[in-house]
Amino acid sequence: MKKLFPLVSVLVVLSMLLSACAAPTPTPAPPTKAPAVAPTKAPEPTKAPEPTKAPAAAPTQAPAPTKAPEPTKAPAAPTATAAPRPTPPPGRVVVEFWFGLGKPLGDVLEAVVMDFNKSQDKYYVDPIYKGGYADTMNAAIAAFRAGKAPHIVQMFEVGTATMMAAKGAIKPVYQLAKETGWNLDPSIYIPAVRGYYSEGENMISMPLNSSTPMLYFNIDAFKKAGLDPAKPPKTWAEVRAAAKKLVDSGATKCGMTFEWPTWTQLENFSAIHNVPLATKSNGMLGMDAELKFNSDLHVRHLQTLMDMQKEGSFKYGGRDGAATVLFPSGECGIIMASSAARARIQRESQFAWDVTFLPYYDDVPGAPINSIIGGASLWVMNSPGRTADEYKAVAEFFKYISKPEVDARWHQETGYVPITHGGNDKTKADGFYQKNPGAGLPYQQLTRSKPTENSLGLRLGNMPEIRIIVYEEWEKAFQGQQTAKQAMDNAVKRGNEVLRNFEKTYK
Fold first, then answer.
1. Were both Cys, which of 195, 293, 369, 384 would link to 456 (CB 3.0–4.6 Å)?
2. Quick one: how far is CA 157 from the chain centroid?
3. What is the residue-averaged pLDDT of the chain?
């Protein structure tokens, strides 16, 4: 316990920071050492399928799946009058699973867990909603310190570096597999997902809800502005031109915006252009990584956004997911948002819309390559008195959610990407992508190239704090208080101080 004191203190600080960072998914952090691979020319992005009017999603026909409760407009907070929790059947090995997904996604998750419990008669996973991700982290920290940690905790991807540093608090998935006789095959998981939650070839946590950002556009507004929705913008030059035309024509008040600014415009921007966000393979090769996102290309991109704001074609909608509403409301004709935003856009938009790949600068050699993920994964926690049967139960649950039919159901009902190749294949076989044009593009974007050391993911300590620093410096630039170069230099300098403090804590 003494050795873990630095971890606990850092986690407490991190959890305080996270109160300002909800993770729709996304928000993002880190993976493994991937051998340096020479970037290959990614194939020309596939043309988005023929758009349709917000189709209704058809859930996969998994074997007698438990139906999740009907989603509501706003998440319902737990109350004292909530329905009583199911009682585990007698004789079962019970494990606690603390999660941070609110309604309606949390309902789907609970339904999947209940189906696992019904699929066999030896183990019982007890899903317990602990509030948002920050609340779940706070609860897990307190429980670990008291020697009563849950067996499984859902943790957003920006907490990956910190969780991996908690050697005594967590049991890596690869170790769980060895101890329980689970023949874990990492190759069944898509590389962009597997790599994010691995150390070398060893999986550390179990992927669950993974997403990646996409570009959504308003078909009706495009037509009104004289733009061809069958040819959505691919490059940043095309995005800027389209956004300006949307505003100049009066089709929309705002041309373009984006949610989760650092995730969409810095972390994924770096990945698809195959440029480092930081040294040491974006932190995956060591805590002594240094931020490098003040390169000429990064400065150029921020300057482009500043110029677009000045000409009126871009609106900065705020931090985290604050800008999401600007698209389904019809105010902005283009948004870069999480693939998991699809459900909300489909539910709230009163116009035809479609989705395509993230834009890129076409004069950058090799661009675009694969994007990276956001979302969360499942971590196995250690606690005094934990039995081999309990760990076996955890392994059986992880095997269950990795089945193609279960993964496909999760993907189709939530909008998160399939975490396995089998889940994607099952979804295709179900005809889901034919009925829901564009729903398969996030998987294509994540797998369109072999990940490089710049596009495997991130593993940077206290990443939420670094994101806040970037927000602060970018906002000063958008307000005309400093240049793009000054903003990026300041963010890198301040961010590196955060990394050095994190490194000092764990050395």
1. 195
2. 7
3. 86
Residues 6+ apart with CB under 8 A from 125: 94, 95, 97, 113, 116, 117, 152, 393, 397
Cα 462 to its chain centre, rounded Å, is 17
pLDDT at 35: 35
- Mapped onto helix, strand or coil, the DSSP state of residue 36 is coil
- What 3 state SS string does 103-159 have? CCHHHHHHHHHHHHHHHCCCEEEEEEECCCHHHHHHHHHHHHHCCCCCCEEEEEHHH
Q: What is the pLDDT of residues 438-467, one digit of tens each?
A: 999 999 999 999 999 999 999 999 898 999
CATH of 2-78+86-211+373-447, one of 3.40.50.800, 1.20.1630.10, 3.40.190.10, 1.10.3880.10: 3.40.190.10
The residue count of the chain comes to 507
**Integer Cα distance of 436 and 413 in angstroms:** 12
452-to-28, 32, 191, 346 alpha-carbon distances in Å: 17, 11, 11, 33
Element spanning 355, H or E:
strand 353-356
Q: Are strands 202-203 and 198-199 parallel, antiparallel or unpaired?
A: antiparallel
- Tell me the pTM: 0.80
